[in-house]
Amino acid sequence: MSRLQVVSGKGGTGKTTVSAALALALATEGKRTLLVEVEGRQGIAQLFETEALPYEERKIAVAPGGGEVYALAIDAERALLDYLQMFYKLGGAGRALKKLGAIDFATTIAPGLRDVLLTGKACEAVRRRNKQNRYAYDYVVMDAPPTGRITRFLNVNDEVAGLARFGPIHNQAQAVMRVLKSPETAVHLVTLLEEMPVQETADGIAELRAAELPVGNVIVNMVRPHLLDEDALRTAAGEQRAHVAKALSRAGLGGARRGGLAERLVDPLLEQAAEHAQRVELEREQRAVLARLDLATYELPLLGEGVDLAGLYRLAKELRTRIAPGGTA
């Protein structure tokens, strides 16, 4: 099982929710997981119903079996100060630069630098060891940028290593890429069973593979249940007014005569059933597209009541049986 789990997906697919649920699933049975946020949206804090995360690793949840989930909202400015101190011993000078606005200017004017700092901080957490020379965290889960820019985000240190031919910047960039392009890392793509998210997922996987970045699984989120069996779906797709009216009448909803209650219910029910049948057929087509990607695909249910903390633990349990250690994958 890869120790760095990167989660990406098209906006609106619920990648932050999946990231949080995966962190909980991986922490089951005494493991320590760090959940990393890199986009500054404080989505993790909202999901775990806690206050905004500072730039420090803070315990936010306990998983079944006593495992712990820590979270870190990486701030590019603070990460740059860490970098200056780590490699150049410029802690005091770095703070002076921050007061002058130079740190903010550097991270804003050079978005590539920002990505270097964000990925570098996450990989440092993956490599970090404690006093007993054990890894500080069993797993690091990154709530990464959307699919459209995930490859460039993860591959930015490759470009930096090529530009800086030697020195600490070159060495740090190479160290980060050794983690990101190794079996220690898996990049998961979250999608919905809809045409645009599925197509973006396929495109993202192609880009990741071309960049030789390790692709993990496809996670289909918010899957709605099928309410009708195959025979009922075929019926819903056709004109079955008389049959439906008679069935409603037999159910005690009044006679099937014109103008009766059963008669008035026929059109709305047939319309809803037809929409359901069309959606099921669309989902079937999108599952076929995903199957051609030649990756393990796992589905998470739509939580009709929304994703609160209890729902997050439910999704974690679903993931535990699928892609977490000890599951079926």
Automatic annotation (TrEMBL):
InterPro entries: ArsA/GET3_ATPase-like (IPR025723), ATPase_ArsA/GET3 (IPR016300), P-loop_NTPase (IPR027417). One of its GO terms (molecular function) is ATP hydrolysis activity. Residues 5-180 form the ArsA/GET3 Anion-transporting ATPase-like domain. It comes from the Bacteria. Coiled coil: none annotated. It holds the Pfam family ArsA_ATPase. This is ATPase. The lineage of its organism: Bacteria, Bacillati, Actinomycetota, Actinomycetes, Kitasatosporales.
